[in-house]
Write a structure and sequence with these properties.
The complex is a heterodimer of chains A (about 350) and B (about 260).
Chain A (H helix, E strand, L loop, with lengths): L1 H27 L7 H17 L4 H24 L5 H21 L10 E3 L6 H9 L4 H12 L10 H20 L3 H11 L1 H5 L5 H27 L1 E3 L6 H16 L4 H24 L8 H49 L1
Antiparallel strand pairs in A: 1-2
Chain B lengths: L1 E10 L7 E11 L4 E5 L6 H9 L6 E6 L2 E2 L5 H4 L3 E4 L13 H9 L13 H14 L16 H13 L5 E5 L7 H18 L2 E5 L3 H6 L3 E6 L2 E6 L1 H4 L4 H12 L6 H5 L1
Parallel strand pairs in B: 3-8, 3-9, 6-7, 7-8
Antiparallel strand pairs in B: 1-2, 1-4, 4-5, 9-10
Helix pairs in contact in B: 5-6
Classes of the chains: A mainly alpha (about 350), B alpha/beta (about 260).
Chain lengths: ~350, ~260
């Protein structure tokens, strides 16, 4: 159980980068971008393909970032220049990317044009590279003996290096997003999601800002995909299905628990939301009568509840407020009439 | 500073809904001119504003700002030289962003936006001194989200944001019409103050005749897509509402039909 949880947290931290991307489009730009399902795989496919071909994993991961950026920009161009509805632009790009991803994975094998998956069992990865440095320090052994001997745990994670490196990476990405949203360009992107007419009247090209915002968002999504591929040691054409909903669930859960007072706090909430989502996922999988494949249904239900419950709560509060005001008014009226009787 | 030459615009051309919105408009503003525009609903005032701002392009005619032809220039490029305040107090600011972030957006109007911080300490100082001029205490609420401000406060902020980078042209589109009388008066006073300080070339549409007479050095009246009356600086000083009504009857041969135009 503990190791399963530990793995969930590790994965959650990687998925948090994807959730930050979804936050950029869904919340900041107010653009429901479905490209995510495709660009997540594009990132995984690009990184896996390059690693198999013998490129350095860091370079492969950076290439995935660029590929995601391009995919996002394409969605942006479909919407702004092609005047296609945002949802449809994303869906079109997602479908197109499915074929493109098969082609990208096909590049890894000279005997095939397309490939549905790439195993990375024996390949190098960012994590294995870091591990070769980390393993020599001896922190793992110390922590493991502390857990087993002092706290009495039966099992301990095989390494603490992975969680450390993903945590550092995700916090760096979060800080970059925080910084970016406070730059002049970032402010203009936020205003584009908030009030297009206003930002146009301050000489900002909203079309360009939407394209840029979608590009950055999908770059993060693809980065997350590249890391997940290296973490779970495979890339698969179907690994992105439902990714947008998972991203949304993370954003919504995080915002509901930790609030959105400042940008710093909101992005932190999104990261935490992604980790919490993974923990819920792991717990759900422990339940006997649930199957792994039910998880998409559960995710959808989480998002639906997270969207509907706040509305119901608000309605109920409003009703209580109305009732209170009515009683106040009645009392005031009674006092007035009593005053009148007294005079008479 | 601003020149409109032979501007024509027809909406829904060739359909039963065809409407001639602007019919051969010619208008010339010299630097520092403050022109007020009056006219009944559908006279073409807002369409003319949108031609200048670039939200609409004319079917025929040429728009020139500061010696440059801008007829084909898209709205976002043109707004480098144009400050605008809209009728709707919600339209001119970004509600989920803070006061200082809104000001930072306005501040980058005529420079290319880059990866510099939107708000730094030097800019904050400038924002503070600019906000102080409004006299609303907003300088103490830098980090308040603009969505929390009242309509009057938001409109005052919009006005400041539209003017503090000294645009070549300032367009005010009934910017006091949605406010209660005391707030409208405050905004009118601030408009006068900010325009005078910046010596801004200004075009202001209003439904309120008294406001049109009190503010600015020139006045034009529009009707059915044409400028039917243009009053210069000398004559405007003695102008009164009855004069305007009489002029309209003279030109059109009918009574002015808008109570709203009188009462604002």
């Amino acid at each position: 159980m503990f190791t399963a949880m530990f793995g969930s947290v590790e994965q959650g931290i990687i998925y948090a980068i994807m959730a930050l991307g979804v936050y950029l489009t869904f919340r900041v730009l107010d653009f429901p971008d479905l490209t995510v399902d495709g660009s997540f795989v594009t990132g995984a496919a690009t990184a896996a393909m390059m690693i198999v071909l013998g490129y350095n994993p860091i370079l492969a991961t950076l290439a995935a970032l660029v590929a995601g950026f391009i995919a996002g920009c394409m969605t942006g161009l479909l919407h702004t220049k092609g005047k296609i509805n945002p949802l449809l632009s994303g869906i079109l790009m997602m479908i197109a990317l499915y074929s493109i991803n098969l082609r990208i994975m096909g590049l890894s094998d000279e005997n095939a044009v397309v490939k549905p998956n790439i195993p990375l069992m024996s390949s190098d990865s960012i994590f294995s590279q870091f591990q070769s440095l980390w393993g020599n320090i001896g922190i793992d052994q110390a922590l493991t003996s502390f857990l087993k001997n002092t706290l009495g745990f039966q099992t301990a994670p095989s390494t603490w290096g992975t969680i450390l490196i993903v945590l550092i990476l995700t916090l760096i990405i979060k800080s970059i997003v925080d910084w970016f949203l406070k730059t002049e360009v970032g402010l203009a992107i936020r205003a584009t999601g908030d009030n297009k007419r206003m930002i146009r009247s301050f000489s900002a090209n909203t079309d360009g800002l939407i394209v840029l915002g979608l590009g950055v968002s999908n770059a993060l999504v693809a980065l997350s995909g590249a890391l997940i591929a290296q973490y779970s040691k495979f890339a698969d054409a179907n690994m992105g299905i439902g990714m947008i909903v998972i991203g949304l669930a993370s954003v919504i859960i995080g915002e509901a628990i930790f609030g959105t007072k400042t940008i710093f706090r909101t992005t932190l909430a999104v990261v935490a939301g992604a980790i919490i989502y993974r923990i819920i996922y792991a717990v759900a999988l422990q339940i006997d009568w649930l199957d792994t494949s039910d998880m998409k249904l559960i995710t959808a239900i989480i998002v639906i509840l997270a969207l509907v419950i706040p509305q119901l709560v608000e309605k109920r509060r409003e009703k209580i407020r109305k009732e209170k005001r009515r009683i106040q008014r009645l009392e005031q009226q009674r006092e007035l009439t009593q005053g009148g009787n007294h005079l008479a | 500073m601003l020149k409109l030459e032979g501007i024509n615009k027809i909406f829904n051309e060739g359909t039963p809904d065809e409407k001639i919105a602007l019919d051969n408009i010619n208008l010339h503003l010299s630097p520092g001119d403050f022109v007020t525009v009056i006219g009944s609903n559908g006279a073409g005032k807002s369409t003319m504003m949108n031609m200048i701002s670039g939200a609409l392009t004319p079917d025929f005619g040429v728009v020139t700002i500061d010696g440059k032809e801008v007829t084909k220039l898209p709205e976002y490029k043109r707004s480098q030289f144009i400050g605008r305040v809209f009728q709707d107090p919600m339209a001119g600011t970004a509600p989920s962003m803070t006061i200082e972030e809104n000001l930072a957006i306005a501040y980058s109007r005529n420079a290319k936006r880059g990866l510099r911080r939107g708000v730094n300490s030097k800019r904050r100082e400038f924002f503070r001194s600019s906000l102080e001029k409004l006299g609303l205490g907003l300088e103490n609420r830098f980090n308040a989200k603009v969505g929390l401000l009242s309509g009057g406060e938001r409109q005052a902020l919009s006005l400041l944001m539209a003017t503090f980078t000294k645009p070549a042209i300032l367009l005010l589109d009934e910017h006091t019409a949605a406010l209660d009388p005391s707030r409208a008066e405050l905004i009118t006073r601030l408009t006068k103050q900010l325009v005078e300080e910046g010596n801004l070339t200004t075009l202001m549409v209003t439904h309120n005749m008294q406001q049109a007479i009190d503010l600015g050095n020139r006045l034009i009246m529009m009707d059915k897509g044409q400028i039917i009356l243009s009053i210069d600086e000398r004559k405007k000083q003695q102008l009164s509402i009855p004069d305007l009504m009489a002029e309209f009857e003279n030109i059109r041969g009918e009574k002015m039909n808008s109570d709203r135009a009188l009462l604002g």
